[in-house]
Amino acid sequence: MLAARVLLVAAAILVAAPAQAYNILTVDMGAYWNRLDWQDWGAQEGRGAPGLEGERWYTMVHYEDLAHVNLFDYDVLLVQSGFVDDQVDHAATQALQALQAKKAEIASFVAAGGGLVGTAQPLATNGLQPWGWAPVDLESVGGMHENIVRITNPTHEVMANSTHESLSNWQSSLHGYFSDWDTRLSPLAVQGEHATSADQLVRAVTLAGTYGEHCGRMVYTMQDADYHSYQGIAGARTFLRDAIDWAAGGVCEPVPEPATLALFGLGLAGLGIARRRRS
């Protein structure tokens, strides 16, 4: 009897947990386009059935209230563009500071299997900008307004429904590029404004990867898909929807530690002994 209980406990540790509801927390960075009812990402706040498979259920929180939010109540954290004007001249300074203060919880959230999608954080000049709130090291160069994007990993789920054309010509498709990033991230698309320049073609515009033992999924992009979704551009909406969908599926089970495997083996051995005794 004891052996059977040990086996059940060990099995429970190894079996994957059931899928959580598909709930998205989006941060209002203070820009005028940060209104869910002006955007169309597949669902809007107050619509749909929370927890229904395939449903995207949004909750928006202003950056001033972010400190009081438990990220673990959600499946995906969506960080909107880090600027507040059309010309990308004014950074969302206070919002970025609120995210920085939440950095440890964001890292824990993603490490536990949560999803993270972060959109453009350019500067008004061509200076370097670290994404200090992100769980991994990430640095971008901002300030430029480019139009042509080239997909480098078309088989990735984030790019499944996008093309070079659908990611380009959003009245300035991107506002910079990533100059340095953690090795856990890989480029999915690059800057392609000047097709004859090798330097332009290797500048990453969108990155994706996993973090933590539970495979939390991260997508970072220098394209401001949230702003252009507000403008009604279909390519922006498709890209943002697919990025969120992919990020939402990041729960995996860690490789069991030796002690856990030993416990599981002990349970199997005990169960075998109990069966032999009955026979």
Main sheet overview: 8 strands, mixed
CA distance, first residue to last residue: 15 Å
- Helix proportion of residues, in percent? 25-40%
In terms of DSSP E residues, the strand content is 15-25%
What form results from the Cα inertia axes?
Answer: globular
Number of extended strands: 11
Topology as H/E string?
Answer: HEEEHHEEEEEEHEEHHH
**Spatial arrangement of strands, main beta sheet:** 2-1-3-4-11-10-9-7
What structural class should be given to the helix and strand makeup?
alpha/beta
- Specify the number of helices: 7
Low-confidence stretches: 1-21, 42-48, 273-279
Mean pLDDT: 78
Radius of gyration: 22 Å
Question: Can you characterise this structure?
Answer:
The protein is an alpha/beta fold and 279 residues long. The chain contains 7 helices and 11 strands. The strands form 2 sheets. Strands 2-1-3-4-11-10-9-7 form an 8-stranded mixed sheet. Strands 5-6-8 form a 3-stranded antiparallel sheet, with no helix packed on it. A hairpin with a 7-residue loop joins β5 and β6. The longest helix has 21 residues, at 258-278. 40% of the residues are buried.
